Amino acid sequence: MLLTLSFKCSWDIGEWSECSKTCGLGMQHRQVPCRQVYANRTLNVHMSRCRHLEQPETASTCQLKICSEWQIRSEWTSCSVPCGLGQRSREVRCVSNVGDFVPDQECNMNLRPTNIENCDMGACAKSWFYTEWGNRCSAECGMGVQTRGVLCLTNHISSLPLERCGNERPADSQVCNNGPCDNRIEWFTGPWSQCSAECGTGSQQRSVVCLMKSDEGFTIMPPYECSSFDQPLSQQSCNIKTCGAKWYHTDWSA
């Protein structure tokens, strides 16, 4: 008696894998082996055994959500410097498909637009700037000196070391002459002395002399020679601080 055995083969469809992308178009896969049932046992067999059956797909596209995208949210700012090399910036944000700001990691970092770049505003112009000459001469008569301010500035008004504008620096002093010192007479004063009282009202003095100034120097003159001029004070009151209560003591008795 001939025994005929029947072997039944079928595709065993596995679970889909996770999507290869967290957003946008990705791929997912699954295992689809050919199985054979024999004597109440299931065995994996060569795929050719299931060739009479339509094979299920083992790969498929997937998309969990629409990817966020980079958006440029502002124009470039002005360059950080008015001349020379500086930087400028703009706002770049990662935005979800519903318009919310999301962390940068949710966008493709390789496609991120630059938000900082260098800018060249051209060479800085450097030049000398100076004030008018001072009205006062250092000498009231005869030869003296008058001065003015001199600065090396860039075109955005930032002071530079003086040598940066070149060697042709404008003079900051010049000779002045208020006329000959022909026996000019006037009062001269010395410094005030210390106040005579440590607290409360005291007095202080200074020397006041009549001098004649000439090209040869100074000569002390009698006070009446300066009588046509207002004589400066030679004494004035002073008050360093208000006096307060203070303990005083005598020597010990025998």
From TrEMBL:
The keyword Secreted applies. It is found in: Secreted. Pfam families: TSP1_ADAMTS. Keywords: Secreted. Its main location: secreted. This is Thrombospondin type-1 domain-containing protein 4. It comes from Xenotaenia resolanae.
